[in-house]
Amino acid sequence: QVQPVESGGGLVQAGGSLRLSCAASGRTFSSYHMAWFRQAPGKEREFVADITWSGGSTSYADSVKGRFTISRDGAKNTLYLQMNSLKPEDTAVYYCAAGQIRFRMDYWGKGTLVTVSS
Questions:
Q1: CB-based contacts of 65: which residues, under 8 Å, 6+ apart?
Q2: Which residues pair with 39 in a beta bridge?
Q3: Residue 101 DSSP label
């Protein structure tokens, strides 16, 4: 079992950068596919990016491609999301998730709020 805990959210101006972290407890972190999702006010939760258990493959939503980078550090049991060139429409609560089958998440964090001001 994996328990994700997100951190790193905050307020940033448009064009700025933030790096989110997700610390995942449990000795089996390296065997899980990991992903970031987000939910903006009044909208449904949406996929942002994912990375396979090995780190060998990643995928991104079109809206963040070229601006966001997902990565993982197995030694630290930590997932990251580097967000550059942030836009006001990136404002959302960002969630970290883990799953044994890619794109089927079993465990979710409680989220961290990112606010991008114009």
A1: none
A2: 93
A3: B
Q: Are 35 and 59 in contact (CB under 8 A)?
A: no
Looking at the chain, how many residues does it have? 118
pLDDT (tens place) for every residue of the chain, 118 residues total: 889 999 999 999 999 999 999 998 876 788 999 999 999 999 999 999 999 999 899 999 999 999 999 999 988 999 999 999 999 999 999 999 999 999 999 999 999 999 999 9
Q: Are strands 107-108 and 112-117 parallel, antiparallel or unpaired?
A: unpaired
8 Å CB contact between 70 and 80: yes
Paired strand residues for 25: 3
| Count of CA atoms in the C-beta half-sphere (13 A) of 31 | 7
